[in-house]
Amino acid sequence: MNWIAIAVTFKLALLTAVVLLIVGLPIAYWLTFSTWRWKFIVESVVALPLVLPPTVLGFYILVAIGPHSPVGRFYSDVVGHPLPFTFEGLLLASILYSLPFAVQPFAAAFAQVDHRLIEASWTLGVSKLHTFFRLIAPLSTAGLVTGAVLSFAHTLGEFGVVLMVGGNIEGETRTVSIDIYDEVQALNYAGAAKTALLLLAVSYGVLLLVYAMNRKVWAVWPQR
Amino acid sequence: MAATLTIDCRKTFPGRFTAAAQLTLPLDPPRVLILFGPSGSGKTTLLRCLAGLEWPEEGRIQFGSTIWVDVASNIRLSPQARRIGYMPQDYALFPMHTVCGNIEYGLSDLPAAARQERVRELLALLQLQGLEQAKPAQLSGGQQQRVALARAIARRPQLLLLDEPLSALDAPTRAKLCGELRRLLTQLAIPAVVVTHDWAEALTLGDTIAVMNAGQVLQVGTPQEVFSRPANAEVANIVGIETVVQGHVVANDNGLATVSVNGAMLKGLGADVSGSAVYVCIRAEDVLLEQAGSGGTSARNRLPGRVVELLPQGVLVTVTVDCGFPLRAVITRGAREELGLETGSVVMAAIKAGAVHLVPRSS
Q1: Closest listed residue to residue B205, CA positions, set B163, B240, B236
Q2: How many contacts (CB atoms, under 8 Å) link A and B?
Q3: Which end of chain B is flanked by fewer CB atoms within 10 Å, N or C?
Q4: Which one is predicted more confidently, B230 or B60?
Q5: Which of B48, B53, B138, B156 has the highest number of chain A CBs within 10 A, making it the mutation to test binding with A?
Q6: Cα–Cα distances in angstroms (integers) from residue B284 to residues A139, B298, B326, B328, B336, in the given order
Q7: How far apart are CA B244 and CA B325, in angstroms?
């Protein structure tokens, strides 16, 4: 098995999940509680990676961070090398690609929190920010874990976006799914089978965790 | 000028009605204002505007010298900044916190020792000792209500807002806790606004009652004024209780109390303590009128009196009889003709003891 590719993949998935846990929370909070009438526009943008072919998403990201775009030029001026075909570029693409997998469970969990509890907290003098950390987040633990775990699992298996933005650089952007593809291209079915089985086992384990978490949570959901 | 809570605001509910309220509540000495009316009359909305959880489209709310809402100058004070104690109808206790955790939730700016001291005080005040570590789901309705009250008053609010504080309880618990709530409100000496649709609660808790319907405040006055002298037929219909007079319990025999009302003696149910001050409440349709000197019935109360007013309303006539106090009865036009009732006629009013409701009042 290609342990380097496995290490790159897990590092990528873990960082994606962590970043989405931080970035996804305010987005999900806003999507849940905003009463702005045009909110659906933002909701649709967040959900776009669910339906877009990864190659299309990858293509636009590649163009957006490439040397001909202002973002890409700014990045290479500051850091010293361009963003495409690096681990950082791949991480950025993964975050965008997995955004709905984090934001949607977060938002669903926030929406489940009884609004009367939130109001009670406000009238007790607790600010909106503290109400989030003291009330909404603790009551949404299952949704937060679900979102983080799903974005982790989703990143493990991504292929199209990685190929478009990351390329296939050993130790930098070659992930497990690309490694499997290479093995099959080289007719090394035994090598591909081992890696594929590992990915299957990890994905299944992760989903088991998600469903077990939510099952436990429904059983002890706050009485209303 | 004495400090007041002044409310003057409007809010539209598309397809239903426009709620509009103009009310003034003196804050010193602290009083209890009751918002009384049927469900959907806009009383909860008004309370939520006071809490800062809903915003009127027009108007202003001023508490003492602080403006809470002034739509014209775009002032909207957040609920956090109002220092209120708000208790929603279903209490909204935090399910993941214990009784202590709920009570101290709003006290996080106090040092730990002071916080614990305050929680101990509140547990004692509301008789919640022994339940410190219980979760809300393990508590009875009455206990949940007391925890919600403790949480609402923990920060020593300057205004207490209670939305149907007793409606989630069963009838016997409600009657018991209503008296306790009255004592607590008196003891705390915090001005309060209480929403209710129950006339007995309104009489027990309120110093001032505002009767609301379809978003409008129809009448504001003391409980007795509003109940016995409704401003118009709509108010009379909403309060639904035509005779409310003050009395004193003189004897109590196994729950059947004898009450003196301006010299007349009445038997009724509801008050437990001899010597206590009560409101005597009688519905007009529970009063029978007979010719003076007719035979006995099972009714415990037979009061001779003189008709002072006859008010025809469709097929019915509302008759006011002076029995030492004004008693209202509603009879049909046919019955009036048979009895030959005119102003000045002498009649006998018969009322079953069960129809005489005694509601404790602060004397």
Answers
A1: B163
A2: 60
A3: N
A4: B60
A5: B53
A6: 52, 18, 11, 5, 15
A7: 10
- pLDDT tens for chain A, 224 residues long, are 788 889 999 999 999 999 999 999 999 999 999 989 999 999 999 999 999 999 999 999 999 988 888 888 888 888 888 888 889 889 999 999 999 999 999 999 999 999 999 999 999 999 999 999 999 999 999 899 999 999 999 999 888 888 888 888 888 888 888 899 999 999 999 989 999 999 999 989 988 888 887 775 444 445 44
Within a domain: residue A162?
Answer: yes
Residue in chain A nearest B138 by alpha carbon: A223
**pLDDT value, residue B237:** 80
Domain CATH number, residue A105: 1.10.3720.10
| Assigned domain for A60 exists | yes
Q: Best of A123, A133, A135 to disrupt the B interface by mutation (most B CBs within 10 Å)?
A: A123
Cβ distance of A120 and B84 shorter than 8 Å:
no
Q: Which residue from B minimizes the CA distance to A122?
A: B80
Minimal Cβ distance to A116: which of B82, B92, B105 = B92
SS3 B340: coil
Q: pLDDT at position B274, please? A: 67
What is the per-residue pLDDT for B195?
A: 95
Predicted TM-score of the model (pTM)? 0.82
CB-CB under 8 Å, A126 with B105: yes
Nearest alpha carbon to residue B260 among B252, B271, B249, B270: B249
The partner residue sitting opposite A120, judged by closest CB among B82, B83, B88, is B88
What's the mean pLDDT in B77-101?
A: 94
Task: Give me the phi and psi of B252, to 5 degrees please.
Answer: -140, 120
Q: Residue B159: which of B182, B188, B202, B187 has the closest Cα?
A: B188
pLDDT in tens, B276-328: 888 888 888 888 888 877 666 777 788 889 999 888 888 888 899 998 898 98
Collect all residues with Cβ–Cβ distance below 8 Å to B81 and sequence separation of at least 6. Answer: B52
How many CA within 13 A on the CB side of residue B309?
A: 10
Full residue range of the structural domain in which residue A77 is found? 3-218
Chain B residue closest in CA terms to A136: B94
Locate all alpha helices (DSSP H) within B87-222, ordered by sequence: 99-103, 112-125, 141-153, 171-188, 199-205
For B318, the token pair is 């509302």
Contacts of B80 in chain A (CB under 8 A): 122-123, 125-127
Task: Give the three-class secondary structure for B260.
Answer: strand
**Model confidence over B118-168: pLDDT tens digits?**
999 999 999 999 999 999 999 998 999 999 999 999 999 999 999 999 988
Question: Residue A224 falls within a domain, yes or no?
Answer: no
Residue A70 lies in a domain: yes
B-chain residues near A116 (CB < 8 A): 88, 90, 92
Structural domains of chain B, with CATH = 4-240 (3.40.50.300), 244-360 (2.40.50.100)
Looking at the structure of chain A, the number of domains it has is 1
pLDDT at A224: 42
